[in-house]
Amino acid sequence: MTLESPPADTAAIDLLMQQRARELARPILDGAAAGERVEVLEFILAHERYAIETAWVQEVYPLRQLTPLPGTPAFVLGIVNVRGKIVSVMDLRVFFGLPARGITDLNKVMILGDGEMEFGILGDVIIGTRMLPLADIQPPLPTLTGVRADYLKGVTASQSVVLDAQRLLRASAVVVDQPSA
Amino acid sequence: MSTEEERFLQRLLAMFRIEAQEHLQTMSSLMVELDVAVRAEDGGEVLQPLIETLFREAHSLKGAARSVNLETIELICRSLESVLSALRKNQMPLTAPVHRAVSDAVAGLENVLAVEPIDRPLDLAAIKLIGALDQLLTPPEEVGMPLPPVESLALSPLGLQLEPVMPLPPLPDPLPQVAPPPLPALEAVPQPAAPAPVTAPAEHPVAAPPAHAVPEAPVAPAPAVIAHDIHPRHQEMGDTVRVSAGRLGVLLNELESLLGLKQDATHRVESIRALHAEVADWRRERARAVLGLRVAARQQNTDSTGELARWLDMNTQDELFGKQLQDRLAQLEQAARQQQRATASLVDQLLDDVKQVLLQPASSLLDLVPRLARDLGITTGKQIDVTLEGQSTEIDRRILEQLKDPLIHLVRNAIDHGLETPEKRRALGKPERGQLRISVAPYEGGKVLLNIEDDGAGIALQRIREVALAQGRYTEAQLDAMDTPTLRNLIFETGFSTSPILTDLSGHGLGLAIVREKVEKLGGHLLLDAPPGGGTRFQMLLPATLATFRGVLVTAGERQFVLPTRHVERVLRLPVSAISSMGSKPSTRIGDEAMAVVRLAETLGLNASTAAVDDWLNVAVVAASGRRIAFVVDAVMADIEVLVKGLGPQLRHVRNIAGATLLEGGQVVPVLNAAELIASAAASAGSSLRPADPDAPAQQSLLVAEDSITSRSLLKGILEANGYKVTTAVDGLDALTQARAGQFDLVVSDVEMPRMDGFDLTTRLRAESKTAATPVILVTALDSREHKERGVEAGANAYIVKSAFDQTSLLAAIRRLI
């Protein structure tokens, strides 16, 4: 066994190593999308595409049983049982004051939570999750007005409306606290 | 605390820090001046103003600290303030030790402020400072009390009732067993026989402190925060594990889902049994048919190679298979039945065990009483001995949490209304120190009894009559017809207050009604009586575990609801003809009582299925808080065992609904709140003429006068959050100017302010025709009786002591006044 290697080999190895290092150092994505990205859950609600950060989505449930509560504001659809726990479910269409457009399914519950607040929102169809580059989120179109505009992060190139789940969870407007009669 | 409040608190803390630094700077330079003056042997005319300013600074800092809940700073300031006050009034000479303790305190305050987080709990250094200050004020004879080793602690601000944390001198044998220290005043109403109470000090050792010195562990009132910090209770550490309450809750929730499993297992057994029976029937039918065929075959004497014979041969095989099938089903049924039994007993046992885990000694609740009593004692100028008993009684921690507010309320009532001032007690021949005794003891049927008893003036029936008459609740004749307990129970009615001025202690009139409702919500009862020796006694009979309770499952407006069984007096079917229309409201007679009849669906705002073609109505008589109403429901389904769950954080409170419960199979059903339901029914009964929107009041405008920027921002924030329009003023003069210029529905003012204080402001407002009738609420950190009285004289409508974030009393007072 010789301790000395032929110099040519050393150079070749160095070259290889450098090449590998460059390879490894290259970002998995390139170009503009290489920036920060968030994972979003996309769903369809009243024929519109929405996206919501998965960080605030605890789980997605098929809506089986919903118990309406008398006397609650219209945006509260009712309560459901999630493994022995009661979770309230709201209808974003009503909360956002969107006009009813045709019949929708509303058969999926996405349970949002931030440790303090927790409630479910309904969607018609769950499209799936994907990584969304933050740079792709554009400011909301001026046509998106009303209550909804307060809870939007923006709109993606694919025309998904990105909801600000954190703001929604912290909004006092979603809390129901009625005085006794 | 929600994150929003948290951020608000952070902002306030930042503001407080700036304000506190200003106060401390002033105090430091004053201390230097004081030093110089003392060295120069200056007289009172130089010293006095310095002390006066120091006192005011300490007072302001205390108030600011209190409004952001910084206990350490507040407590140091409070003790400092007391010392400075004594100096100011020349009750104490400015000796070297006094001077040292004061400078130490100022330096200590700077230290507290310099280290983050500033809202950390009281530490040893702070306790020493407070102890040193308080010691200056303690008359020498009290220093010589028993428990020498804890003496310095006993003098600390939390001190009156500190549990001995060090080994005690041996006690006289035999140790007085559980026999509770008797309530002296209750036992012997000392009419003539009592020794002349002038010799108060001589009586002390008998009446007051020894009751607390009896070091019988569970009886001795447990200490407040301090004792834990100094000497952690090692004996409790041994074989226990700390588990967060949240995790336990999750565990319990999941276990409750097992109840569904248990039910499923029963259903499974049932379906297998049914299948088994079907197969058995089928075999029997078949056997009968085959027998008929055989007979027919024999009669026709057909050829044995014929179709029928072949079929009959095959049938023997089938018959064998059928028998095997039935046997296997029988085995399956048996196995399933065994499994169902095992599951059921395991689930029940497990649930029971977890409920046991959720039990906590009552001390976690009762420990807050001595401190509260001490604070209130200082405020009201009353001397109070607190006796606690039965702290080791175990109660579900969720119940203990819910009991906190009712207990605080009753203790406040006892001290504010019940116990008399020392002078008055002396005049009545009672011992000067009032007795407040709180005991918890197991009661039959898995319940616990919580007693809150004082030896004060008791409930003035005459005053109740006057208020009931004045408020037009009852006529003289009605009142005359009432017996004493009925009359006494009027104080539970909403809006009933016998207190002439609103204070934050009591007098909202909502109080006892809410206490009762809370207790009833927990499945308990609140009773009030007058012990024979005088005073007042409240008794709460509560379940020890927040286990399941019974509910009546009903349908109304095509939906299911649960009515708590304890509020359902009876369920019956009434012929439609039994309903009469007294006035415009339908009513009926049940037993010998007339009561209103209301459709449950209507009360809940549902589409009532009015097409009641039936001649009979299903009625549930619901009773709560002394009122009853007959609710018409579509059907009464069952009496079930329910466990009430909260509606989640989004639905903090939904009118008429107490929570929800899960039926077998996981179906969610709302549980109704009986008391609210009755109130809603009563409100809606005559509401057809009223405009539809009671929830949108015009925004009311408030003027807030407060010199501390921290407190001012706090008040503004809270009041605005509650829907008021708020204008602020930096002192009384500013407020007066603004009140003249603007239009305000109510004025909230601090008491101590530069240029013009709250009393002057009130007097001036009263003197001007424009503002003469505007309600004024004085809010202050200074809680003394004289001030309250001055407030009344000046014409204030309410006097409220600032306390941190708990602004419910202020808000309640505002709502009551405008």
Protein described:
Chain A: Residues 37-174 form the CheW-like domain. The complex is a heterodimer of chains A (181) and B (818). Chain A has 181 residues and is α+β, with helices and mostly antiparallel strands. Chain A contains four helices and eleven strands. In chain A, the strands form two sheets. Chain A has a five-stranded mixed β-sheet. Chain A has a five-stranded mixed β-sheet with strand order 3-6-7-5-4. In chain A, strand 6 and strand 7 (118-123) form a beta hairpin. By secondary structure, chain B is α/β, with parallel strands linked by helices. In chain B, a hairpin with a 2-residue loop joins strand 15 (616-624) and strand 16. The longest helix of chain B has 56 residues, at 245-300. The A-B interface holds A 65, 67-72, 76, 79-81, 83-88, 90, 114, 116-119, 170, 172, 174-181 and B 2-4, 253-257, 557, 559, 604-606, 645-657, 659-660, 662, 666-670, 676, 679-680, 682-684. Strand 11 of chain A pairs parallel with strand 18 of chain B, so a sheet runs across the interface.
